[in-house]
Structures are given as structure tokens and as C-alpha cells.
Design goal:
By secondary structure, the protein is an alpha/beta fold. Helices cover about 35% and strands about 25% of the residues. The chain is built from ten helices and 14 strands. The strands form two sheets. Strands 1, 4, 5, 6, 9, 10, 11, 12, 13 and 14 form a ten-stranded mixed beta sheet that branches. α2 links the parallel β4 (about 55-60) and β5 (about 75-80). The model has no long low-confidence stretch (mean pLDDT about 95).
């Protein structure tokens, strides 16, 4: 079974405003509401690709209930911790005059008991399960919660996937995650260098391998992606051709595609990489997250 963890889920309220005028009453030209959060995005894309997963994390209030309802409506299994105080976030994304402005909520007041409840759920994972942890850590949680989770799972045969930035990523490397997915900017920040080409990221991805990562998948937006794999192979590809409509969730989609491709191919890194690249691009080329037909259309281009 595949599990995803989203520490601070949200409802994304996405609106289009024509001729936005600050200080005045503005009306939307288009609006939609989506259940959001990096792990949740992974679960949604896995479902679109035909793979089951269970979404874990923390929910609170009427917004939390709506997030769970929307996921269950899609047929995605959920096992969230219900938090007593506060409410799950509403993140407002305003598209106006060619620019996007975001206003993000804070999230609920997560207690030590809530964190322990999550640990208990993770204790039920068994060898062969896959756990995807991604995104920032809200202030209510221990700053080292990524490390605590991977340490708790160490030696149990659970394949862990981590998509996070800087210290959150580097500090889990001693626990040998199956896959990490920095983008080229995040990888450059770790080593204080600028990485603009696929060739330039390879030696730094290998450095993360030397520190403990088994597979390093580096996303590079329009430049494509690079995989430095556990078997010693290096695979790279330019981005598929298409018009970028909405890049939100593209990185999460790449993670979902890689995991799905790896399982479908019986463990082929090349197949997993191609599926990851095309799934990330399919999401970027659409207002919604990638669907299986969209991904297969891009795979046919490779």
C-alpha cells in the first residue's frame, strides 16, 4: 500500500479577477475550490493513474471535513487525525492581470497527542509499503518530525519518499530514503551553487547519494529532469513539449508518476523516470492534476 502524509492540508480557493483594483469591490471571473497539500496532490494523481493510496495527516474544523469529503468523493482512502482546535487552512490564489497572488492560512493547533496518534498509524506500516512525506512543517509540529518518522520506520522495509527543501531533506539522508525529489534550485541551495543545466545537477545529486539517498530525482521545470539511480545509472530528459497552464502540483505529480511507474514496471528506474517526467508535465499543461490519458499521450512523445 502507498501512504501519503500531508501535515497541513488545505482548501485551495483559486480565483480569476479581471482588472483587479485594490481597495475596491472586485468580482471573480472564474473560481474553483480544490483539496490541496503536497501529499494530497500525490494521492489524487496516484488515483488518476489507477493506484490506491491512503492519505494521512491532520484535519480540523469544517474545512477539514470538506477536504476529507472531497477526497472520499474521488475514491481516495483517508485516515486523517482529527484536531480539536482551529481549522484546516483555506489558501486563496488570486490570478489577476497575468500575476498570481497567494494568501495562505495558518492551519490548526496540533498537539503532542495528535502527533503521537500519527506515529501510531505509521507503526502499522509493513515491509513493501511506500510512504510519501512532502511539504513544509507547520510551526505547531516538531521541526525534526521528518527525521523522527524515518527513524521510527528504519529497518522495517518501508520505502520512504521525501520531497522537501534544505534541512528537512538533508537531515533524513542518514535513514536512506528510497527516493528524494529536490528541484534544481533546492539542490543548488543545499550546496550554495547555481544549477541551470541537466548536466550540472548530476555531481550534486551524487553527493546526496553519498550522504544516504538511494535515488535522487531532480525536477527542472522547462529544462526537464534528471534521475541519479541506486543502480548507478543516470537518466535525463528534456521537458515534453506543451503549454504550461498551471505549475502548482507538478512536482507532486512527478513523485506520484515515479512511484506508479516503478511499481507498474516491476522496478525499472528508466520506466519510473519517464512516467514521472510525463506525469509532472501533464499536470503543468492542465488546470487540473494529471490524468492517465494525458500522461500516456506525453509518454508517446518520448
Amino acid at each position: 500500500m502507498i501512504y501519503t502524509v500531508t501535515f497541513n492540508p488545505c482548501l485551495d480557493y483559486i480565483i480569476q479577477v479581471n482588472n483587479l483594483t485594490p481597495g475596491a469591490v472586485n468580482r471573480t471571473a472564474h473560481e474553483e475550490m480544490l483539496a490541496g497539500g503536497k501529499g494530497i496532490n500525490v494521492s489524487i494523481v496516484l488515483k488518476n493513474l489507477g493506484h490506491k493510496s491512503t492519505a494521512l495527516g491532520f484535519l480540523a474544523g469544517f474545512t477539514g471535513a470538506e477536504i476529507a469529503r472531497r477526497l472520499q468523493e474521488r475514491g481516495i482512502a483517508t485516515d486523517f487525525i482529527s484536531v480539536a482546535q482551529g481549522m484546516s487552512r483555506i489558501n486563496v490564489k488570486i490570478n489577476a492581470d497575468g500575476e498570481e497572488t497567494e494568501i495562505n492560512g495558518q492551519g490548526p493547533a496540533i498537539t503532542d497527542a495528535d502527533v503521537e496518534a500519527l506515529y501510531q498509524k505509521l507503526d502499522a506500516l509493513v515491509a513493501g509499503d511506500v510512504l510519501v512525506i512532502s511539504g513544509s512543517v507547520p510551526a505547531a509540529l516538531p521541526a525534526d518530525i521528518y527525521e523522527r518518522i524515518l527513524a521510527r520506520l528504519a529497518g522495517r522495509g518501508v520505502e520512504t519518499v521525501v520531497d522537501a527543501a534544505r534541512d528537512l531533506l538533508v537531515n533524513v539522508l542518514p535513514y536512506h530514503p528510497f527516493l528524494i525529489k529536490p528541484n534544481n534550485h533546492e539542490l543548488g541551495e543545499i550546496f550554495n551553487v547555481e544549477l541551470a543545466t541537466r548536466a550540472s545537477v548530476v555531481p550534486y545529486a551524487k553527493k546526496l547519494q553519498e550522504q544516504g539517498a538511494r535515488n535522487v530525482l531532480v525536477s527542472m521545470a522547462g529544462e526537464g529532469a534528471v534521475l541519479v539511480a541506486e543502480d548507478g545509472s543516470v537518466v535525463e530528459a528534456p521537458a515534453p513539449q506543451g503549454h504550461v497552464v498551471n505549475s502548482v502540483g507538478a512536482g507532486d505529480s512527478m513523485v506520484a508518476g515515479f512511484v506508479a511507474g516503478f511499481q507498474e514496471s516491476g522496478g525499472s528506474y528508466d520506466a519510473a523516470f519517464k512516467m514521472g517526467v510525463c506525469t509532472g508535465s501533464a499536470s503543468a499543461f492542465s488546470m487540473q492534476l494529471a490524468t492517465r490519458p494525458e500522461v500516456e499521450a506525453l509518454l508517446a512523445q518520448l
